[in-house]
Amino acid sequence: MNSEEIYKDGAYLKNNQTWHVEDSPWKAKQILKMLTKNNLKPRTICEVGCGVGEILAQLHQNMSGETIFYGYEISPQAFELTQSRKSDKVNFYLKDLLEEDIHYDIVMAIDVIEHIEDYFGFLRKLRNKGTFKIFHIPLDLSVQTVFRSTPILTGRKHVGHIHYFTKETALASLQDMGYEILDHFYTAGMVEQPGKPIQSKMLSPIRKLMYKLNKDWTVRILGGYSLMVLSK
């Protein structure tokens, strides 16, 4: 079966009934951090694979009224749920952005490429859709997850992750597809986001302590982090 089908036939919504709305304020905060850090003031922001649109809604609430937001989604179920979030500055489309002849100041793929069967092909086509690109990529590969294997298999079954990255392989994949990396930083989802599994809560104090000593080693050994990337 094509990996996209679970997003179109309702299977993904069945397994993830909130479509991760609860994570959206935290993700929007990380995006705002990247924008502020690099002094970016875009007039247009597009999100590919926007889900139910809550990240864009959160950004709209926290950014200048001059910015216009556009969300593209291939899931009919998710698109239906975007309708309560649309406004004159927040627009949603049940379309594949890669098939559109259009260009934005910033294009975002937030927790997207790990779901896509041909993510190299996706990255090649996405590159020309925006002046700047922002990616958020889960770093599912760590000593802990490889040793246990359960977190990777759980993510595959329930949230559709079919590719697994370290910081190095994520950045290399973008560079191989012609992206110029401008900035990147870790995001600590398993430490900072509420409602995580008990195992993650137990590891949080250790992650916090080790992260202060050595960020890279903490991420490689314990996992629980993602990578926010700004590129051209």
Give an account of the 3D structure.
This protein is of the alpha/beta class. It has one domain (5-231): Vaccinia Virus protein VP39 (Rossmann fold, 3-Layer(aba) Sandwich), CATH 3.40.50.150. 43% of the residues lie in helices and 19% in strands. It contains twelve helices and seven strands. It has helices spanning 5-8, 11-15, 24-37, 54-62, 76-82, 119-126, 143-148, 150-158, 167-176, 189-192, 198-213, 215-222; strands at 44-48, 68-72, 90-93, 104-110, 130-138, 181-187, 226-231. A seven-stranded mixed beta sheet has the order 3-2-1-4-5-7-6, with helices on both faces. Helix 5 (76-82) links the parallel strand 2 and strand 3. Helix 3 (24-37) packs across helix 4 (54-62). The longest helix is centred in the last third of the chain and has 16 residues, at 198-213. The relative contact order is 0.14. The model has no long low-confidence stretch (mean pLDDT 91).
Shape: globular
Give a count of the beta strands, DSSP E runs of length 2 or more: 7
Mean pLDDT: 91
Strand content: 15-25%
Pfam families: Methyltransf_23
Keywords: Methyltransferase, Transferase
GO molecular function: methyltransferase activity
Protein name: Class I SAM-dependent methyltransferase
Core attributes:
232 residues, alpha/beta, Rossmann fold, seven-stranded mixed β-sheet, SAM-dependent_MTases_sf, methyltransferase
